[in-house]
Amino acid sequence: MTSMYSSLHDNYVSNKGRRTSCVTLAVILGCLTVLGIILALAVLERPKAPKNHESLPGYTGEINLTDQCSMALVESIPLYLKYNDNATFGIPLEQVWKDLISIASHRVEVVSFYWTLTGEDINVNSTTDVPGRDILQRLGELPSRNVSVQVVTSVPTVKTNSTDLKILKQKGVQVRRVEFGRLMKGVLHTKFWIVDMKHVFIGSANMDWRALTQVKELGVVVYNCSSLAIDLHKIFQSYWVMGQPNSSLPQPWPAKYFTNINKQHPLLVKEDNISSSLYIAGSPPSFCPPSRTQDLEAILSSISEAEKFVDVAVMEYFPTTRFEKPYKYWPFIEDAIKMAAFERKVKIRMLISCGRDSDPAMLPFLQSLASMDYPLHHISIQIKLYIVPVGNQSDIPFTRVNHNKYMVTDKVAYIGTSNWAGDYFLTTAGVSLVFSQNIPHSAWNNRTLHHQLKEIFDRDWHSEFAVHLSDLGHNPDCALSPR
């Protein structure tokens, strides 16, 4: 400030100049005052870390933007599905779930659409349910180790004869069912784990033995990341509260559910010279406070920011609503894809699952989107169906399918729990982890999670199990194929 006053004094020496300097100084001070007010309001508007988490294990006060988080991709490859020996794979899902249970010291929280960890749950006698039985037993043993276990599931859910939750409750596990049908006319389709308020798993896998041996799944595990775990816990708490009898959605959500971590303010972490920014998005909108990035926004922004390519792997793709009648056209994701391909010449590849239970109504929408592929005008939209061979596993229902829900672009990676149809973003609960990573080009290699996810997509895209729409002949394992 001294130099500014000196400059003003040196430049204005006459009485008139002195009066001018006073006016000028007043204007400057006024501008600074206004700027200060604006900055103060901005700080006040920013969501604060909720005070009620001060007693949570792993909470250290302010959100730590330099957590030493360790991330890894997680996969489940169905039995008898064979790839080349040099293919890239994530850590086996069964191994990650067992690891999370074994390292738990005081708290485990699990959210799953439904629970069927034994063959009897779906009236099937199969030895391939052994890993599921093992997980169920290990979860049931946690309370005897003085580890608190809280489980949230959906009402309505898929029709099964499951006794999993009854068994777990008898062993001291706390269970709540969210009546999503009453609250939102949808379901709680979310799938995630939080362990000791510092380890997180998010992915496509429900608590189902078939997810371990019969269904192709993909997710991500994040270790030693208390900031992310505490943030995801806020979503868990919203489910837990809504699982109380006669609950009703708060309008608006209380401040304790607000988040400091979103698309505008991602969590910044560094591991092995790799800088990452990440955030958790959620749906439906009525379950998200204003500070939470919505799942649809995460998808649309990821597509709109891509400059070179967008690779999508998802079980179902419909530019419509699917469950609540009357059905409605819902073109938001499709419009973003077409705009990226047409206006910015971004290369689009979509790997859509096709199994025995896939809805044939999906085919016309995929054909319509693929018809835009026009290499002569540099418009590239390629669509393949991923078909898991059923083989001798035909007696197991709703299986042998690619259940993945992820996207990778040249900018970001997105790993979610929702299929790409309108209801999943309007009335159905889901979460996703969105991350981008930077590494010095001099040290570039395959260490980034982003690069590994791209390799997994390429592995599947070029595999014998991926078939171009135009090449789809009769295939008994794919309900979309000609009959």
Structure description:
The chain is α/β, with parallel strands linked by helices and 483 residues long. Helices cover 30% and strands 21% of the residues. It has helices at residues 2-11, 15-45, 93-103, 130-141, 164-170, 180-184, 209-213, 226-242, 295-305, 332-343, 362-370, 423-426, 449-461, and strands spanning 70-76, 91-92, 107-111, 115-116, 148-155, 174-179, 192-195, 199-203, 207-208, 217-223, 267-271, 274-283, 309-314, 347-353, 381-386, 405-409, 413-416, 430-438, 466-468. The protein has a nine-stranded mixed beta sheet, sandwiched between helices. It has an eight-stranded mixed beta sheet with strand order 2-1-10-8-7-3-5-6, with helices on both faces. Strands 4-9 form a two-stranded parallel sheet. The termini are far apart.
What's the structural blueprint in terms of helices and strands?
Elements: H1 2-11, H2 15-45, E1 70-76, E2 91-92, H3 93-103, E3 107-111, E4 115-116, H4 130-141, E5 148-155, H5 164-170, E6 174-179, H6 180-184, E7 192-195, E8 199-203, E9 207-208, H7 209-213, E10 217-223, H8 226-242, E11 267-271, E12 274-283, H9 295-305, E13 309-314, H10 332-343, E14 347-353, H11 362-370, E15 381-386, E16 405-409, E17 413-416, H12 423-426, E18 430-438, H13 449-461, E19 466-468
Parallel strand pairs: 1-2, 3-5, 4-9, 5-6, 13-14, 14-15
Antiparallel strand pairs: 1-10, 3-7, 7-8, 8-10, 11-12, 12-18, 13-16, 15-19, 16-17, 17-18
Helix pairs in contact: 3-4, 9-10
